[in-house]
Structures are given as structure tokens and as C-alpha cells.
Design brief:
The protein is of the alpha/beta class. 27% of the residues lie in helices and 23% in strands. It has 7 helices and 14 strands. The strands form 3 sheets. Strands 4-1-5-7-14-13-12-9-10 form a 9-stranded mixed sheet, with helices on both faces. The radius of gyration is 16 Å and the shape is globular.
Length: 228
């Protein structure tokens, strides 16, 4: 039996695609078949690739420019246009299949739903430092009671890593907050229809604590699995 096929997007810098191997390891350990998504230029190619996939992960990345409120800070470069365009192509092509957005990927899904993104949540909202690159460590997030995320993790509080300067401002259509930090920053979101799950933290770096998010994606993708 073929495992559910999970597309994993990549970062792009100076024409080179890169991917943290921990995403691949997490998908494999959760029972999925990881497939690396290339940077594409046409909707036709994205549609053809999507026909081979059962679920999608959009990974972390640089500064998102869609739905941006305020300017990006000097220590956060903007996403390259080629990646932004490719992510939109595969996200639209996979609109009927399960999705997990991580960090940049969560913000991207929110922006695609018409939501907005702070350029620098610390500066704009007086929030605590949320970037490990600026000196933040792990912090506790409060998971919304009755949310899908609470059911997936089986807890209402979680110690999570933090690697973001940007943050969700206004939620997009059909999305709701699934977790927040003590200063009110949205740390996870989910769609009312159950297709979209987004984590502002990086579950692929959290070993057993983060694995349930990938296992949930695999379970959802099994219902969409089609033979090649």
C-alpha cells in the first residue's frame, strides 16, 4: 500500500532551493511519503503535480509580503517572488486537500484567505520577542478549548519554539485562532471546514511534541488518497 503522498515546499534564495531535512523526517515518521515540491512557474505544472499528491505542507521561510501591514524590518528579508508565485500555484491546485502551514506557511494561508500580517509584531504591537534569532527561547502557548488542535495534541498548553518576527493580524475568511501566547499573538489557526491547520511554531523541530500535527495531516490525507 502506498503511503499518503505529502508535498513539501522549499525555501528559495539566490536561485537555490533548500529544505530543512526535519520536515521530511517528520512526514516519514508520521506515516507519509514526502515529496519535495519544486519552484514552479505555471498553473498547468502545478495542477499536474497536485494530481500526484494527497496533502500539502508549506514550510517556514522569509518575510511574507501578502496582506502585509507595515514594513518588514531590516533583519527579515522578503520572500523571493518566484517562491511566492509557486506557493500560490500549488496552494490553489491543492485547494480540496488537507493542508499544514508552518510559520511562513501559516501566514501565507491566512493571507490567501484575505487575512493580514504584521511586518514586525514586536514593534507594531508591543509584543514580547518571538524570534529565536532576536534572543527568544521556548514559550508557552494556550490552545483554544474545543479546537481541533486541542483534540490533536490532547493538551491545552504546550511549550513551543518561536522563530517568527511577523504574525497574523486579522484572520482570513473561514479561519479561527487555535492557540495564542500570553501577549495575544496567534500561534495556530484552523479552518472551520477542517482542511487548513497552521502552526506559527515549528513542530518538525519538536520531536515527539510536534509529531501529532504531521500524523493528523497523514490521517486526513488518507481520505484523499488516489492510486497513481
Amino acid at each position: 500500500m502506498i503511503r499518503p503522498r505529502i508535498g513539501i515546499t522549499t525555501s528559495l534564495k539566490d536561485g537555490r532551493q533548500t529544505l530543512d531535512r526535519r520536515y521530511v523526517v517528520a512526514v516519514e515518521r508520521a506515516g507519509g511519503l514526502p515529496i519535495i515540491v519544486p519552484i514552479m512557474e505555471s498553473a498547468e505544472v502545478a495542477s499536474n503535480l497536485a494530481a500526484l499528491l494527497d496533502g500539502l505542507i508549506i514550510t517556514g521561510g522569509p518575510g511574507i509580503t501578502r496582506g502585509l501591514i507595515g514594513a518588514l524590518p531590516a533583519d527579515l528579508p522578503a520572500v523571493e517572488e518566484a517562491r511566492d508565485r509557486s506557493d500560490e500555484l500549488i496552494y490553489r491546485a491543492m485547494a480540496d486537500r488537507p493542508f499544514l502551514g508552518i510559520c511562513y506557511g501559516m501566514q501565507f494561508a491566512n493571507a490567501m484567505a484575505g487575512g493580514t500580517i504584521y511586518g514586525d509584531v514586536e514593534r507594531q504591537c508591543g509584543a514580547a520577542v518571538h524570534s529565536a534569532e532576536r534572543g527568544a527561547g521556548e514559550h508557552e502557548i494556550q490552545i483554544e478549548h474545543g479546537s481541533r488542535l486541542a483534540a490533536i495534541l490532547g493538551v491545552e498548553r504546550l511549550r513551543a519554539n518561536t522563530h517568527h518576527i511577523q504574525a497574523v493580524a486579522d484572520l482570513g475568511a473561514g479561519l479561527r485562532a487555535a492557540a495564542r501566547t500570553a501577549d495575544g499573538v496567534i500561534e495556530a489557526l484552523e479552518s472551520a471546514d477542517g482542511r487548513v491547520l497552521g502552526a506559527q511554531f515549528h513542530p518538525e523541530r519538536m520531536r515527539e511534541r510536534g509529531l501529532p500535527l504531521f500524523e493528523d495531516l497523514i490521517r486526513r490525507a488518507e481520505g484523499h488518497s488516489t492510486p497513481l
